[in-house]
Amino acid sequence: MKPFLFKINALVKNLLILFQPHVVFSFLIQPFAFFSNFLSLTQWIAKQPTKGVYKDAFSLLRNYNHRIDLYNYVIEKENLSNTEIIYIEMGVCNGNSFAWWMQNNHNSASRFHGFDTFEGLPEQWGYFFKNGDMIAEAPKLEDARGHFYKGLFQDTLVPFLNNGNVSKGKRKIIHLDADLFSSTLFSLSMLYPYLEKGDIVFFDEFNVPNHEYLAFKIFTESFYVKMELLGAVNNYYQAAFKVK
Ligand SMILES: C[S@@+](CC[C@H](N)C(=O)[O-])C[C@H]1O[C@@H](n2cnc3c(N)ncnc32)[C@H](O)[C@@H]1O
To answer: What pLDDT is stored for residue 7 in this prediction?
Structure first.
């Protein structure tokens, strides 16, 4: 029976390839992908534990102060304010979150690395943001522990890693705030060899189905990385994980 079904499966697939259904149905690619990823996201959320995880109350609108509450929760829970950390932020823009982390970790041996084109998004992000949006001048750094790497992650991250800036055994805080699927998946994949148990990964736009959520899903499933949810705010718009 199985060999017969294999043959039918191959026959139908080959016929479909021959008929090029995209000629008529390509308009369905985006909505179907969005719908599929959205269902996957809500299913994933439903499976998350409710106890021992930081969450704000449900609200219809986003409140950006809640992401600071999440940072404070993680800093306190993981005892990070005086610990030596390597903080890596992918997507700095005008430096608000970068500055917050520098101000709230007081260890003089900590290092803070921020990556951005500083020329805005390299691609369109959803319907509302186009290529070049979020352009910002690299903020002034008055704290010698911080450094910015200007350019596409795809050009700057690998040389940075090859230069030995991220040594194993030190607590890493990875802040993924590039919004885009491509940038997030690229960053996670390149940082993968350096990730260790206990490292913390923040997502700033986690609940966007075709972007950060999809990058998280593909990364964790393809690299067999397990991450434990520490907290989420703004209905999972911002989420923090600990590598298991
Ligand atoms: C939402 S902003 C970052 C906001 C910032 N972390 C904050 O909250 O203060 C996203 C940034 O990611 C940057 N970005 C996205 N993809 C990138 C890539 N592949 N290479 C370099 N920068 C990228 C954009 O230039 C943009 O400035």
So the answer is: 94
